[in-house]
């Protein structure tokens, strides 16, 4: 019997379940769905700490499982299936995500955490519609999640071990199976029982209805209200959000060259948009009135964004993550003592950082998440601490004057720091040793993260000598000489910078192919090279300065010489959110601006460069390579 008529819609399609779970297979077969089972080979190794909420982790894992199968089948069969379904179930308790236990002791640890408490079971589900152009896989990704609350009884140690010895916990998220013996551990369930078993069938069927039977446009009635916005107002808002989010999403660089898009076709009825950690919109559809009156989550995230940024900035500035480095667990009072702050204030900061998934909180105290350990501890290899301090101490004060910047169309250094800035570097960043080192640290930390992408976006092996103009601490040069064994790099920067680069050089790496030369690229001679590099330099300056600099470089180049520009490139559809925000950043603090690929192409061609190629690396810098003709 087919309970959900929409399942019939899938009869003529080749449907694949990307899961080996017999429970999921049983649930879907009993609903009348005909499908093949192709277990995904995607390793469930996503960094949990990088997801702001647990269900995003489950949805992302489900998506990756489904996409892996879609890709593999497309390669193997020279055509993809029509639909791939991926799912991932997790259990969360006390801010921790529990998956399948690795052994009996792990099962015991999990079950003890759940004992006597309410926990959440989330299943992230992804429905991937596949098609192919040539052999190129094209996919539309629809994601949702379901949450069910489960309360465990107070269980004795004996009973826990008896259950563990039954062998049942081992292949189940959270270490129990509610549909069998594990059902005896459960006092009550709030929500979809099948979701706890492993697949939210009810929500899945609703989702299919929304996908395959969208309500006709004229089914929407517009009701006028005096003070309370009508339901339709929210719908329209969501539609707009969906449009922009969908655009953003299509910029996300995922597996190989596949173009992924997300979002729903036509009208989907009631929508609630969630952003996943890769900037993808997640459309959670539900028909209940409650969801319609909720504030749109995308807007709530934007509203709170500045609070989250500042909480992270302050915790970095107070060196909270440094204090908790390694496996340290500290109570709020101990942290407060170390950072010379109030206990109540510290506790609130720590709790907020826990909510932001930068810290973990257990009975032993607070500790760093993997994300904080890797990027927020000030001396970790890929620390963003330097960049965050620049954002806190320099960018934040400028951004408080954004309104004036927009009205006046000029930078706001005079308002934020009490002085007019003619030369951004001499007058602003380098006016004291403290600000100079802070800026250099910022550039160093962000370049550490992006240098590899930039250095490998193009094959640069034909060049023998490169000159990185405004190359700062030489971070890109260090990666370039690793990638290209025949390349020598000159890092050219202002004397203020070159005098202070020694503290930024790696230990144990042979840097003899890097030379540091000080000078002013507007006034002094520039070293000769067959590849010139400008990373985050052009965006700092007004057009006349850029023309002067590019003319100078062009005059030095011989035919075949290269110019590599590394900047955030603006796209014409506002997809690249970081680049567009960086464009505001340039408004508040410089006379420069970010540019589109078209603008860069025109600029470079005006100066005698041809064969302009652009790679959007998907990280914080895009790369443009061109050749002097
Ligand atoms: N290229 C580095 C990166 O991407 O991380 C640093 C970029 S930073 C925004 C600009 C760099 O240009 C700074 O290191 C600065 O000192 C350097 N710079 C600014 N004006 C300069 C000038 N007139 N001559 C040489 N270098 C200059």
TrEMBL record:
CDD domains recorded: Maf (cd00555)
InterPro entries for the chain: COMT-like, COMT_C, COMT_dimerisation, ITPase-like_fam, Maf-like, SAM-dependent_MTases_sf, WH-like_DNA-bd_sf, WH_DNA-bd_sf
One GO term (biological process): methylation
Superkingdom of the organism of origin: Eukaryota
Cofactor(s) named in the record: a divalent metal cation
Signal peptide: none
Domain annotation O-methyltransferase dimerisation: ranges: 301-378
Annotated O-methyltransferase C-terminal domain residues: 399-610
Molecular functions (GO terms): nucleoside triphosphate diphosphatase activity; O-methyltransferase activity; protein dimerization activity
Pfam assignment, any one: Methyltransf_2
GO CC annotation: cytosol
Keywords recorded for this protein, A-Z: Hydrolase, Methyltransferase, S-adenosyl-L-methionine, Transferase
Quaternary structure (record): Homodimer.
Protein name in the entry: Acetylserotonin O-methyltransferase like
Species: Vombatus ursinus (Common wombat)
């Amino acid at each position: 019997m087919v309970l959900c008529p929409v399942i019939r819609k899938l009869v003529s399609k080749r449907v694949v379940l990307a899961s080996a779970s017999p429970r999921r297979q049983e649930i879907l077969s009993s609903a009348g769905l005909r499908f093949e089972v192709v277990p995904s080979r995607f390793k469930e190794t996503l960094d949990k700490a990088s997801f702001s909420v647990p269900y995003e982790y489950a949805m992302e894992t489900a998506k990756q499982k489904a996409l892996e199968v879609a890709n593999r089948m497309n390669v193997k069969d020279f055509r993809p299936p029509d639909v791939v379904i991926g799912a991932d179930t997790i259990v969360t308790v006390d801010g921790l995500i529990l998956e399948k236990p690795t052994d009996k002791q792990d099962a015991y640890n999990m079950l003890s955490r759940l004992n006597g408490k309410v926990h959440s079971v989330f299943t992230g589900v992804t429905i991937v519609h596949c098609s192919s152009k040539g052999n190129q896989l094209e996919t539309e990704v629809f994601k949702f999640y379901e949450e069910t609350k489960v309360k465990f009884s107070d269980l004795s140690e004996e009973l826990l071990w008896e259950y563990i010895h039954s062998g049942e916990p081992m292949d189940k998220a959270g270490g129990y199976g509610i549909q069998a013996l594990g059902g005896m551990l459960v006092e009550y369930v709030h929500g979809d029982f099948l979701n706890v078993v492993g697949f939210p069938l009810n929500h899945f069927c609703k989702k299919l209805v929304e996908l395959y039977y969208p309500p006709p446009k004229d089914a929407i009635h517009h009701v006028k209200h005096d003070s309370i916005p009508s339901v339709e107002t929210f719908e329209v808002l969501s539609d707009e959000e969906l449009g922009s989010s969908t655009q953003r999403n299509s910029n996300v660089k995922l597996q190989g060259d596949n173009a992924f898009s997300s979002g729903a076709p036509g009208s989907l009825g009631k929508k609630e948009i969630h952003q996943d950690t890769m900037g993808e919109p997640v459309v959670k559809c539900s028909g209940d009135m409650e969801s319609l009156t909720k504030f749109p989550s995308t807007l709530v995230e934007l509203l709170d964004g500045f609070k989250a940024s500042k909480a992270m900035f302050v915790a970095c500035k107070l060196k909270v993550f440094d204090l908790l480095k390694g496996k340290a667990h500290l109570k709020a009072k101990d942290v407060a003592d170390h950072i010379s702050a109030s206990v109540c204030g510290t506790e609130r900061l720590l709790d907020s950082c826990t909510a932001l998934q930068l810290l973990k909180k257990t009975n032993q105290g607070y500790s760093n998440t993997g994300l904080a350990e890797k990027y927020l501890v000030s001396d970790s290899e890929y620390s963003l601490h330097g960049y965050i301090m620049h954002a806190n101490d320099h960018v934040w004060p400028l951004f408080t004057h954004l309104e004036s910047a927009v009205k006046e169309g000029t930078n706001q250094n005079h308002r934020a720091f009490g002085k007019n800035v003619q030369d951004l570097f001499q007058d602003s960043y380098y006016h004291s040793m403290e600000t100079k080192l802070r800026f250099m640290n910022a550039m160093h930390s962000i370049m550490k993260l992006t240098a590899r992408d930039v250095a490998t976006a193009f094959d640069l092996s034909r060049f023998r000598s490169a000159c990185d103009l405004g190359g700062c601490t030489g971070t890109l040069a260090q990666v370039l000489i690793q990638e290209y064994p025949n390349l020598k790099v000159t890092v050219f920067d202002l004397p203020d910078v070159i005098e202070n680069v020694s503290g930024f050089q790696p230990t144990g790496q042979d840097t003899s192919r890097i030379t540091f030369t000080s000078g002013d690229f507007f006034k002094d001679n520039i070293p000769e090279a067959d590849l010139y590099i400008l990373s985050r330099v052009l965006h700092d300056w007004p057009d006349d300065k850029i023309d002067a600099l590019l003319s100078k470089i062009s005059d030095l180049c011989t035919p075949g010489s290269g110019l590599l520009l590394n900047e955030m490139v603006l796209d014409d559809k506002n997809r690249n959110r970081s680049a567009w925000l960086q464009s505001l950043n340039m408004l508040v603090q410089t006379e420069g601006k970010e540019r589109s690929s078209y603008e860069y192409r025109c600029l470079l061609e005006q100066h005698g460069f041809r064969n302009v190629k652009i790679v959007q690396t998907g990280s914080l810098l895009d790369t443009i390579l061109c050749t002097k003709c």
